[in-house]
Design a protein that fits this description.
single chain; DHBP synthase; four-stranded parallel beta sheet; 10 helices; 31% helix; binds threonylcarbamoyladenylate; binds magnesium ion
Length: 318
């Protein structure tokens, strides 16, 4: 069992653990992160061990200010405009590492680029006080559903970590959007909490989905975010014994026979749906149904990130 403490009480013990090279689970605006000092190889190794994460999958480095960010990476003009528009917030930029960056190579899986983001509030304050950047993947076992509450972290990783800082349910609910700016294009390696439309409004450029050759995020495994149950997308009717993940005001035929049903957002509000996604999947999984049917969800705005996660949850498991 990990200690679960409210943010004010968690702050000092979290710093002590991070300074000692240990890991701490803490809330960000997107999902809970499993954080460690990104300059300390043993601490970072502990993240991979606790999550059971393959070492070829690099981690996001979290910073508290631009001075810290620019010691680590080199920013081009478009990336600086993205920073001005979205930091602190749910946007991660993949940038060239700067000479003398100090980030342990385990974090970047030996790449010459680094994924950087500036989180809001508590996580940012912890980094600011620590004076070191934090490597932090989502606080869940590799391949499983990301945690958006302290209890979800405890259920998954509680026997492997000492402290969970409890900030209540996270606001955004899906991970950060990952962008890589090149002279040719702005690639969206992962859809997330900042939408393609918001990015276009900020920089006047349309993102290109995916990475192009050699740019795809190395950890973008097809099967990810997976519950124990099978996941069936775009269901047009409910089948015997299924649980139902609903969206919007209208139900598919047979919905009343669902073993369990949760609605991501009755009114079809995308922000609400994103915030509910992982907790609803976990709750439906607990119903014991062999399959979770998912109603069709439109493919725009924040729903792009929701659909991306659901497709990975539904992908064949290796
Ligand atoms: O919202 C978030 O981004 C959360 C919170 C905790 O900040 N973090 C998160 O981390 O989602 P994680 O480890 O679950 O996802 C990091 C993704 C992986 O898919 C990885 O492949 C990609 O970032 N990534 C990391 N470094 C990269 C790099 N240098 N180039 C391309 N992709 C990279
Ligand atoms: Mg993750």
């Amino acid at each position: 069992m990990a200690r679960i403490l409210p943010l004010e009480e968690a702050f000092d013990p979290a710093l002590d653990l991070l300074e000692a090279g240990d890991v701490v689970a803490l809330p960000t605006e997107t999902v809970y992160g499993l954080a460690a000092d990104a300059t300390n190889g043993e601490a970072v190794a502990r993240i991979f061990e606790v999550k059971g994460r393959p070492r070829f999958n690099p981690l996001i480095v979290h910073v508290s200010d631009m001075a810290m960010a620019q010691k680590i990476a080199v920013f081009d003009d478009i990336s600086l405009r993205l920073v001005a528009g979205f930091w602190p917030g749910p946007l991660t930029l993949v940038l060239p590492l700067r000479e003398g960056h100090g980030i342990h190579p385990l974090v970047t899986a030996g790449l010459d680029t680094v994924a950087l983001r500036m989180p809001r509030e508590f996580a940012r304050e912890v980094i600011d006080e620590l004076r070191h950047p934090l490597a932090a993947p989502s606080a869940n076992s590799s391949g499983r559903i990301s945690a958006t509450t302290a209890q979800a972290v405890e259920d998954d990783l509680g026997d492997r970590i000492k402290l969970i800082a409890d900030g209540g349910p996270t606001h955004v609910g899906v991970e950060s959007t990952i962008l890589k700016v090149t002279p040719q294009a702005v690639y969206m390696l992962r859809p997330g909490g900042v939408t393609a439309g918001e990015i276009r409004n900020a920089i006047g450029v349309d993102v290109v989905r995916g990475g192009g050759k050699g740019i795809e995020a190395p950890g973008m495994l097809a099967s990810h975010y997976a519950p124990n149950a099978a996941v069936r997308l775009d269901a047009t009717e409910l089948r015997e014994g299924e649980a139902l993940l609903a969206y919007g005001p209208n139900r598919i035929p047979g919905a009343d026979k669902a073993v369990a049903m949760l609605n991501l957002s009755e009114k079809g509000h995308m922000r609400e749906a994103a915030a509910n996604l992982y907790a609803d999947l976990q709750a439906l999984d607990r119903s014991g149904a062999a399959t979770i049917a998912v109603e069709p969800i439109p493919e725009d705005g924040l729903c792009e990130a929701i659909n991306d996660r659901l497709r990975r949850a539904a992908a064949p498991r290796s």
